């Protein structure tokens, strides 16, 4: 067996700790190319309840593979292959995920070679809540691998940088306050700096949880104003676009607050899915969102 250095294979949703590579996000990815490899083994620091990954090999369909006894095993043909491994699910809330990150310790192969995808910077960055994370997209749960951030990144042919946590928002009304929206910009876990990558476009989607859990316009305006200052500080060289919530909440607030900053562009979204009555868009609706974003760009 050969041990592989994973550093160049991991998406920006992973941080580096003494224990290994850690993540607190659905959609955290591991992508690579293989040659003469028949088996890939990923080993985790412990057994995480319900941990599973979406896996795509070459042009085949995505398949879900569960982690068993701290191990994820992939079987390949010996011919060259492209492999995408995306964290799809684990048991617990986003707050629990933050406090108990998934830690990937080693990657081994039986033979052959592994090389990273050729990544041409800059990244496209998506920031938001469970909708951006790709949660509850189908009857079988999360599908970050085909959520609108990934679809837009694919269409733009840019690598994806995703910062998204379910239940979060910009006010105290959002059900989860760990991590806060501002903390998530700078950290990928407790006291763990988020990798900083070059990005030319940032698309933000917040406000749904604030509206659904009782925040009023004044509270949201205050939270949004503070957040925008931090967002510009983090991504001062990028074009920043703010999606209004798909249900149209806080439109007047978004219009007023974004007008204060030349760096910001507002995206109207309410007409995209006029018949949607549920909180989380399904797979087909994520496709519509992605198409609308790309069309607007």
TrEMBL record:
Domain of life of the organism encoding this protein: Bacteria
Cross-referenced Pfam families: Lipase_GDSL_2 (PF13472)
Residue ranges annotated for the SGNH hydrolase-type esterase domain, each copy included: 126-248
Protein name in UniProt: Lysophospholipase
Upper taxonomic lineage: Bacteria, Bacillati, Bacillota, Bacilli, Lactobacillales
């Amino acid at each position: 067996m050969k041990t592989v250095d994973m550093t160049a294979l991991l998406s920006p949703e992973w941080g580096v700790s003494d224990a290994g590579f850690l993540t607190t996000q659905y959609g955290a990815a591991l992508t690579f190319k293989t040659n003469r490899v028949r088996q890939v083994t990923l080993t985790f620091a412990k057994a995480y309840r319900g941990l599973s990954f979406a896996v795509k090999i070459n042009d085949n369909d995505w398949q879900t593979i569960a982690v068993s006894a701290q191990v994820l095993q992939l079987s390949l043909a010996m011919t060259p292959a492209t492999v995408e491994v995306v964290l799809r699910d684990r048991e617990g809330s986003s707050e629990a995920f933050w406090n108990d990150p998934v830690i990937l310790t080693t990657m081994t192969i039986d033979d052959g070679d592994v090389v990273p995808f050729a990544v041409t910077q800059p990244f496209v960055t998506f920031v938001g809540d469970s909708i951006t994370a790709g949660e509850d997209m189908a009857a079988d749960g999360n599908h970050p691998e085909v959520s609108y951030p990934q679809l837009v990144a694919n269409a733009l042919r840019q690598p994806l940088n995703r910062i998204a946590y379910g239940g979060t928002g910009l006010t105290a009304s959002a059900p989860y306050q760990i991590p806060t929206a501002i903390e998530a910009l700078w950290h990928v876990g407790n006291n763990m700096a988020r990798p900083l990558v070059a990005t030319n476009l940032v698309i933000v989607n917040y406000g749904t949880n604030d509206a659904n859990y009782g925040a009023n316009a004044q509270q949201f305006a205050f939270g949004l104003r503070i957040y925008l200052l931090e967002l510009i500080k983090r991504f001062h060289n990028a074009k920043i676009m703010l999606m209004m919530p798909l249900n149209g909440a806080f439109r007047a607030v978004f219009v007023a607050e974004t007008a204060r900053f030349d760096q910001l562009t507002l995206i109207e979204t309410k007409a995209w899915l006029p018949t949607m009555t549920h909180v989380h868009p399904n797979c087909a609706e994520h496709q519509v969102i992605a198409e609308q974003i790309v069309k607007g760009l």
